[in-house]
Amino acid sequence: VAKRLEKFQTTIFTQMSLLAIKHEALNLGQGFPNFDGPEFVKEAAIQAIRDGKNQYARGNGVADLNIAIADRFKKDTGLVVDPEKEVTVTTGCTEAIAATIIGLINPGDEVILFAPFYDSYEATLSMAGANIKSITLRPPDFAVPIEELKSTISKNTRAILINTPHNPSGKMFTREELNCIASLCIENDVLVFTDEVYEKLAFDMEHISMATLPGMFERTVTMNSLGKTFSLTGWKIGWTIAPPHLTWGVRQAHSYLTFSTSHPMQWAAAVALRAPDSYYVELKKDYLAKKAILVEGLKEVGFKVFPSSGTYFVVVDHTPFGLENDVAFCEYLVKEVGVVAIPTSVFYLNPEDGKNLVRFTFCKDEQTIRSAIERMKQRL
Ligand code: GLN
């Protein structure tokens, strides 16, 4: 393997899902729903295949999907964007992240991440030769340490990558935090790459897109996807929204990374994004019920549970159970208890920072969540 990737192992999600199968454990690890997406969206995909939408799609996205994305963004944020010049369809948000980083970051540019961070950020930044700076968000509230951010920004800082609602912590960036980050970015001429794939799973607070803050649209790449909102993580439909001068970089990278994204699925994605508001209301209601079962259950089991305002994840402190660190705890949990969780130390530049924390997901049917809680009550 090339040197730039030597330090990365098989992704933790793959590792833990394999262990789940091996030990026949209940999987509250990898964030994929164990239920299917809506029928009307699946039907639209089948129809598109029958209609012959089976050759390469237009590189930057099927025009109708670009329009549906722009329309949805306007509904959500009030911002009017040009579907032809400012929206790019990618193969999941993971490709949106890669195309953004590879298209806009030069080797040696500094990029600031907030740890814990989703694993692909660090791997992709390494592929691009970026100089990664990480600022640790700490429980219980995972607040942004603004002074530390100020002292980390330098004349070499090219971008700050944010993720709100935040995987794994469930933290949502507050308006105050976003305002502080925005004014530092404007002052220091820094870009923001913002991963908002969990925006429709905002439970306790209003989701705020960085692009809506004054002066920020022109320096922000907003990245999103269909997977979480429509319980279709395997479809890998994502996108970026950015002003033309940034979209140009994203598209150059996208053209040579994947060239274009699955054609029939894009037609279905456009149908999905035109779902009535009631779809989003139901989705949230269902997830709130699941979240309550998991959070109450984890507390009864004896974990210290940190508040999660958004996403389908909850982070807990496992130390009441006396295992050495997060990895040892998760190994014990899968082998002896039959439940899978995700150790968080892989989401930090310094793994020590995550050694007390593990992540559980509630994107599973209620029975699976209840059974996992039962097992933990009996066997932990
Ligand atoms: N985003 C999902 C999670 O955090 C999984 C992504 C993946 O498996 N690479 O669990």
Automatic annotation (TrEMBL):
GO MF annotation terms: kynurenine-oxoglutarate transaminase activity; pyridoxal phosphate binding
GO CC terms, sorted: cytoplasm
Keywords, sorted A to Z: Aminotransferase, Pyridoxal phosphate, Transferase
Cofactor: pyridoxal 5'-phosphate
Positions of the Aminotransferase class I/classII large domain: 25-375
The name this protein goes by in its record: Aminotransferase class I/classII large domain-containing protein
Organism field: Canavalia gladiata (Sword bean)
Shown part of the complete sequence: 71 to 450 of 452
